[in-house]
Design a protein that fits this description.
The chain is of the alpha/beta class and 331 residues long. The protein is 33% helix and 20% strand. The protein has an eight-stranded parallel beta barrel with strand order 1-2-3-4-5-6-7-14, surrounded by six helices. Strands 8-9-10 form a three-stranded antiparallel beta sheet, with no helix packed on it.
Length: 331
């Protein structure tokens, strides 16, 4: 299994490579990728340097073009495909079928991966993309149980990549409308959930308030750490109670599932977090490199070490970890 790690910047890319990533994934500095935050992502110079750094060390670079083109900005997205191909990326991570067709026609040698934003959750959908667009790998959405992942792997020849660690999303990935409901800008084609221009933190007598386009998302007491406001992970008053009514902040951690995922035939484990710091990338990559090597070396004797769990806990949302849908009881 390959270890696929996030690179929101050139320093993060170098940390990922140095700490043991097999692949890094990144995006351009525009709305063509789903982490379109100011200060993140790659311009032409940084991309060229990053690809050189990774390739010199035998690692791969995957470029995310995983948003859906706006009707009046099609040229922006297809130019991004051309730029990626020109730079020699090892694969494009795409969600929009039109972009897939363009890439197939203009750059037939360019490897394509179906993004989690494509929301392909069954093998018929995956095989459709492989048949029509030569998709080589699919990133599964974080809504499938482990048994469902096994069913998918057993019924397709396409490589399967699953998320191993990082933030969760309660929405069907690629179909979220919450941010656009409040801000008027859809993350699926603007590339960002909760755009920074709509975010405000305001001290009040009741505590520090976070707002999105004026809508109160959360209120923090003095001892609490304030997080970036997203609607799905806000605290709301429901029937007189204040709590995380939609989704409680927690990070996915599948370390204990590694032997089963390996036996299933999963091709790659993905670490979420292009929006996080280079230090996050380094710490997460180190743990997962060590764990993955241990699992592949001796699956029967593999154990999750306490220091791995402790290290990842410090990186987790809300300092909480979960297996998410992998072990859901209502499947």
């Amino acid at each position: 299994m390959e270890l696929v790690c996030p690179a929101g910047s050139l320093p993060a890319l170098k940390q990922a490579v140095d700490c043991g990533a097999d692949c890094v994934y990144l995006g351009f500095r525009d709305a063509t990728n789903a982490r379109n935050f100011a200060g993140l992502n790659f311009d032409e110079k940084a991309l060229s340097e990053g690809i050189g750094y990774a390739h010199d060390r035998g690692r791969k670079v995957l470029l995310a073009l995983n948003t859906y083109p706006l009707p009046d900005a099609w040229e922006v997205w297809i130019q991004a495909v051309d730029r990626a191909a020109c730079h020699g990326v090892d694969a494009l991570i795409v969600a929009d079928p039109g972009l897939m067709q363009y890439a197939c026609d203009k750059h037939p040698g360019l490897r394509l991966h179906l993004s989690v934003q494509g929301s392909a959750t069954n093998y018929d959908a995956i095989n459709f993309y492989a048949r029509h667009f030569h998709i080589a790998r699919v990133v599964l959405p974080r809504v499938l149980s482990i048994e469902q992942v096994e069913t998918v792997v057993n019924n397709t020849d396409v490589e399967i990549e699953v998320f191993g660690f990082g933030s969760l999303c309660v929405m069907v990935e690629g179909r979220c409308a919450l941010s656009s409901y409040v801000t008027g800008e859809a993350p699926n084609n603007r590339g960002v959930c909760s755009p920074a221009k709509a975010v405000r933190w305001q001290p009040t007598p009741k505590g520090l308030e976070s707002r999105l386009n004026g809508v109160l998302i959360d209120r923090y007491a003095g001892h609490e750490k304030a997080s970036y406001p997203t609607i799905c992970k806000g605290r709301y008053e429901v029937n007189g109670e204040d709590y995380y009514a939609i989704e409680e902040p927690a990070s996915l951690n599948t370390l204990e599932l590694l032997p089963r995922l390996a036996a299933t035939g999963v091709s790659a484990i993905k670490i979420e977090g292009r929006q996080r710091s280079p230090a996050y990338t380094a710490a997460a990559t180190r743990v997962w490199r060590e764990a993955l090597d241990s699992c592949l070396r001796d699956p029967a004797g593999y154990r999750v070490l306490p220091q791995w769990t402790e290290a990842l806990a410090r990186l987790s949302e809300g300092q909480q970890q979960t297996l998410g849908a992998y072990y859901r009881s209502w499947k």
